[in-house]
Specification:
Elements lengths: L1 H21 L7 H23 L4 H17 L16
Amino acid sequence: MLLEALLAAMLGLALAWAAVHRVPHRLPGRVLVLPTGVAGALFGAFVTHSALGAGSLLVVLLGSAAVSSASLSLLLRPAGRLRGRSATA
């Protein structure tokens, strides 16, 4: 379990670091993004380990990567301004 948690945290940190370097203009500060990736990965590893047991490390890491990337995607801002006008304007 400790190895799963350590690998999941490293995976979440790697995903968050990649997101910060790939789309920095669409994310908030690095201080928020990096811990969000790690926390999402740890939570995903916990949920996957609880649901499936201690059988396979690869499945736990896949679950942690999925939850980490989902939590990082919640931090993304829209790419540009909305161009349409409202009908009531």
